[in-house]
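Query protein
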Amino acid sequence: MHFILDQLCIHADRALKTLTPGATQAHRPYPPGLKNVTPLLAEQDRAHILGLMKVNHVGEVCAQALYEGQALTASSPAIANAMLHAAQEEEDHLAWCETRLTHLNGAPSVLNPIFYAGSFCLGAVAGVIGDRWSLGFVEETERQVCRHLDSHLSSLPQYDQETRMVLEQMRQDEAEHGDAAQALGAAPLPGLVRFGMKCLSKVMTMSVYRI
């Protein structure tokens, strides 16, 4: 009983850290560095990039929640540790997105807590179903995130090199996480599950871009 309470307290603390702007610190330097700040953006471009970065930020919030939920219910300590390690690596992305939002005079979406809660529950369910399926969920999530980042990169104004450098590094890391999950024995997800994940991602993107 004490172990369960301890785990719940730990995950609650991590949730608060994830949802509190500025509480998560990157372990690696901000990709563009301190001197490569984008020139003054046209207002229309700034609003579009701000919307994209809010979406990317909530995506990283969801990644933290998914990994935390999966680690909580994983049957293998090795898989649980792999999930927590991946979550730690994703902290860089969360901090970088917050930095870019600050440079754009923006703030994270107010919907973040809702998406965190939903993602944590999905991760916990995936962990209960089995480690191979949980890893398959990670692999498919990362593949979809890579496609999503590709679409953002293609829609960025050419002169916004700051955002581009952040997203390119994030994409490289996400691809590596997907490959790592596959190497650990990820099971391919059924087509219906993949389709459902795409639909949920679209709902998140459309709502967070504006709110």
Q: What stands out?
A: The domain at 42-208 is CATH 1.20.1260.10 (Ferritin). The mean pLDDT is 83. The helical segments are 2-19, 43-73, 77-103, 112-129, 131-155, 161-183, 191-208. The chain has seven helices and no strands.
